[in-house]
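FIELD: query
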Amino acid sequence: MTSRGYKTISEKFYLNTGLRHSRTQLKNRWDQLKGLYSFWLWLNKQTGLGRANGTVVADDEFWKKYTKVLVSLFVGIIYVLLVNLFASRLMA
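FIELD: result
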């Protein structure tokens, strides 16, 4: 992403949440989301998995095998969602 892109995202993020993040923080988050999105695309191309209400249904062994690396991403996502939730409630 370009410097201009980071600046625009930073400004819009601040306007929506009231939180300021450095370019490094935004880049780290961007990279995490890009990896998660790539996994999601790969996951939707896998055959033999069930689908229910827009989610992928698989057995526990499948998830253990393919999500070991992604646990830290999910923790990061939950953290960001909680921060955004509390920030939006504080600003309301």
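FIELD: remark
Residues 23-45 form the longest helix (23 residues).
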